[in-house]
Amino acid sequence: MNRIPTPLKPGDLIALVAPAKNIEQKAVDFAKSFFENEGFTVQISENCLGSYHYFSGTIAERLADFQMALDDPNVKAIICVRGGYGCIQLIDRIQWASQLDDPKWIVGFSDVTIMHQRMQHHGIASIHGTMPLNFETNSKESLTTLVSTLKGKPSNIIVAANNSNKLGSTEGVLLGGNLSILYSLIGTDDEINFENAILYIEEVGEHLYQIDRMFYAFEKAGILEKIKGLIVGGMTNIKDTATPFGKNYQEIILTHFQYKSIPILFDFPAGHFDDNRALVLGAQVNLSITKKQGQLIYI
Predict the structure, then answer these.
(1) Is CATH 3.40.50.10740 correct for 13-150?
(2) CA-CA distances (angstroms) from residue 61 to 28, 45, 52, 72, 75?
(3) Could you tell me which CATH class the domain 157-298 is placed in?
(4) What is the pTM of this model?
(5) How far apart are CA 160 and CA 183, in angstroms?
(6) From start to end of 125-196, where are the E strands?
């Protein structure tokens, strides 16, 4: 059972950090105002608005920001302001002792999946949720589910029926994140145990053949045999090749489960789009899919 960080209460301090790509001040200012309006106090890390080539800062600068937020006992949640690329450069340099002693929420998606994977190794839940880069365009539900989850009240999610769904019901630990990042960690010391998990995935900007390749890697690594259910979130801007691949992404995914009987839910509202609802990775959940709808319920 994963440890759940202490729920936030009014006045608690949230740290905004940029562990990867740089970000414009406008997005950070909007997020700061948003959290303050929700009753929290906000701290912007020293290099959050920095710029060093592609990144918000050098590895040392980004590491210092994240480590300071992690070690500050007054900080109750760390919100990564955006993804891109860069978390992998920090993950083995971060000292996690304070997080193990007194876990706090780590929030983000996309490249931040690397942080989520490390939290799973440590048996600590984290929040797959929208980030300040997207706050201004996010749906109301994206932001309300983020705040309620930070407060210890994750939202059950009901999804409309999809003809590609595989019906069924199961329980397990919710794990996952960005498909490319999960794929990149197979066979490394940050690959996690997917035994009896309900796997959530999302992706952006990949080709159809790359989706197929990644699922073959998951299959060959034995991961698809271990999981008890699959939730497919946003598959955003998925591209075909000049010579068509011949299948859409739903068909590609289902091909890899042709002889595996587990529930599969498509079009889940989380990923690289405006309606990016918050999820607690590491939480025990029930996944139920009928002809009428799909449900993700926290147990």
Answers:
(1) yes
(2) 18, 10, 10, 17, 19
(3) alpha beta
(4) 0.98
(5) 28
(6) 126-128, 157-160, 168-178
